Amino acid sequence: MQSSEAIERPAGKRWVTWLLRLPDWAVGLITIVILLLLWEIGVQAGAINVYRFPPPSKLARALWALLTSGFPRGVTVILHIKATVWRILKGYALATLLAIPLGLVIGSSPILDRATHPVITFARSVATISLLPLAVAWFGVGELSRVLLITYGCFWVMVTNVIHGVKSVDPVLIRAAHTLGASRRQIFYRVVLPASLPRIFAGMKVALGLAFLVIVAVEMIGTIEGLGALIMEARTFYRTDMTMMGMLTIALFGFALANGLDWLEDLLLPWARGLEEVER
Predict the structure, then answer these.
(1) For residue 125, which of 92, 96, 148, 156 has the smallest C-alpha distance?
(2) C-beta separation of 219 from 84 below 8 A
């Protein structure tokens, strides 16, 4: 007669094999569900403070309240999301339109690269959020100051990556194009730009994450619409559940936009899928 250990071992192996066969998204979903169940059980058992860490059931009720009655002052979560996403898109798009052409020009010119390096390094080192008082003083408490701060933060990250992308192009490729009789224009569009695109997309992803960090700070002043404003108002009224819902909503939209950039990169750069991860 087999021992209990011998009987359980094949079952454990089958369980591990089943998990390994699941796609990544399914494993991630199972992990999240287990964590939420443990969270709920911990609160119900009194092991976790309900005021500091509201359980998932309370967060679900908070989400329903945001969808129906809204918070604060009747502002629903849809309005908060629209305000935040629209501000991020405007600032991010403006930074992209400025940073990519400028970075390509600077990266292609050693003289410009040496001349602008100290300025770029200094400006990139300035914390974007620390500029909030100046932005309010210069542009007022309105949409312009919020969008420009997002643009500022994203711009320096993008332009740095674009410059490094151009400078890191393999010289052998450029010499080979010269040997084949390509003009400077052809070399730029057919060699330099395609080779720089992986680094450019890497900078865009990093800048997108920075945009979500900045938006929380800029929406805490002078507005009641936006996920940052939702978090601020919830803190004022000690609504931890609303605060966490605002945080989760920002995280979900950041995750969705980051995956959208990944999809766009795979669509435009199918040849780069097998390459090593771009150094960031």
Answers:
(1) 156
(2) yes
For residue 54, count other CB atoms closer than 10 A to its CB.
Answer: 23
Question: 240: which 2 tokens?
Answer: 């931890």
**Do 163 and 254 share a domain, yes or no?**
yes
Task: Indicate the angle between helix axes 143-167 and 77-108, nearest 10 degrees.
Answer: 40
pLDDT 10s digits, 9-54: 555 566 667 667 777 777 778 888 999 899 889 888 888 888 888 8
Q: What secondary structure does DSSP assign to 158-210, as a single string?
A: HHHHHHHHHHTS-HHHHHHHHHTT--HHHHIIIIIHHHHHHHHHHHHHHHHHH
Residue type, 149: L
How many folded domains does the chain comprise?
2
Q: Assess if residue 87 is contained within a domain.
A: yes
User: Do 260 and 121 have their domain in common?
Assistant: yes
